[in-house]
Amino acid sequence: MTTRIMLFTGKGGVGKTSVAAATAAMMASRGLKTLIMSTDPAHSLADAVGARIGPVTKKIGENFYAQEVSVLEAISSHWDELKGYLTGLFQSQGLDPVSAEEIATLPGFDEASHLLYLNEYVEAGEYDVIVLDSAPTGEALKLLSFPEAMSWYMEKFFPISRKTAKIIRPMAKPFFNLPLPDDSVFRSMETLYNNLSKVRGLLLDPEMTSIRLICNPDRMSVNETKRAYTYLMLYEYPVDGVIVNKIYRENTGPFFEKWRKSQDEIIKEIEDSFGDVKIFKSYLTEEEPTGLERLIDFGRRIYGDDDPYDIFYSGRPVEYIRENGESIVKIKLPFADKENLNLFNKGGELVIEMDNWRRVFYLPQTFSDKSPESAEFINQHLLIKMS
Ligand SMILES: Nc1ncnc2c1ncn2[C@@H]1O[C@H](COP(=O)(O)OP(=O)(O)OP(=O)(O)O)[C@@H](O)[C@H]1O
Ligand SMILES: [Mg+2]
Q1: Which domain holds residue 189?
Q2: Per-residue pLDDT, 172
Q3: Cβ distance 204 to 318 under 8 Å?
Q4: pTM score
Q5: At 11, phi and psi to the nearest 5?
Q6: Whose CA is nearest to atom 31 of ligand 1?
Q7: Centre of ligand 2 from the C-alpha of residue 217, in Å
Q8: In this predicted model, what pLDDT tens digit does every residue of 155-198 receive, in sequence order?
Q9: Same domain, yes or no, for 367 and 341?
Q10: Are residues 22 and 170 in the same domain?
Q11: Does ligand 1 lie within 6 Å of residue 136's CB atom?
Q12: C-beta separation of 214 from 10 below 8 A
């Protein structure tokens, strides 16, 4: 049985941890070996599940395991690989070797350590389900864009071949006239590159991974969700559901009447605009959904007759189409702001920029010699004609 990965993200405070924990508790309760992993440095998973948990995976119930990832802990368990890589890299730049604490503060290190754990668990086939309770949207997007960005840099700076993922030790002049790092550094970089490519493969596979967005029925939260959805589509991540959490019930009394009305309108808008992604409604509960029993009950209310293990949408966000002699890149971008979108070909790569995000597309071979000629939006999709 292959591992099923579910990642929950959304704006701060909307209920990510609660919904992720409820989903995980449901899976564990029906016999699937489940790990819930918090990648949010402001961990609150322990409060949700009502158990003490830490950086090392801990059994918190029948078939149920939890871990609050710590960067320092990750360095010691992936130490050899990363230390070798970074120490070599720093030394090659004429810097002193760095300590674990210093490494932990490097940009991108959080992301790398979380992803390496994920890779390790999936490779070992240890769990049937891995649920990721991730940080609020911006951080989660950084995590999800990391493997590609990192691979891109590595490919630019080292003569690495994507096909074989093997770094050919450069014979030419070293960069910046500094001595070349030795072979062990190249080997550990190869491993890092391969692992990041693998983890990207796992997270992009709609048969394996589901990304679920949590939002509340209020304007700010919905706007953020639409933006997050757009960026996730751009990076080809398989979003299969949106969970609208903390909806007020009728019995919340007259004081909340205006709120209920506005929530109704927003829910309708979500249902109309997210197309084929499944929308779940989750009501405000009378008590905080904490502790395993309440979480399972909360989960049942969210998913109703649906099985959270299922894949609710498996279409791919990006398609490469060749028809009638035309080559088209088709990207699902229902909420993209056309004014904010920039696309161009740079050195044979298709680059799309949107707000602060930039995606460099690895085009399939038949497209790689082509440049974007024109682009238009049709039915919530961006169609880029390449020639
Ligand atoms: N449907 C609900 N009904 C009642 N309380 C809820 C519901 N969903 C979440 N809560 C409560 O709302 C608070 C915030 O939830 P939670 O911690 O799950 O959000 P979060 O999105 O993970 O927050 P953060 O961005 O801080 O990680 C918690 O006290 C939680 O118990
Ligand atoms: Mg949380």
Answers
A1: 1-315
A2: 47
A3: no
A4: 0.89
A5: -65, 160
A6: 288
A7: 18
A8: 776 666 555 555 555 554 455 554 455 666 667 777 777 888 88
A9: yes
A10: yes
A11: yes
A12: yes
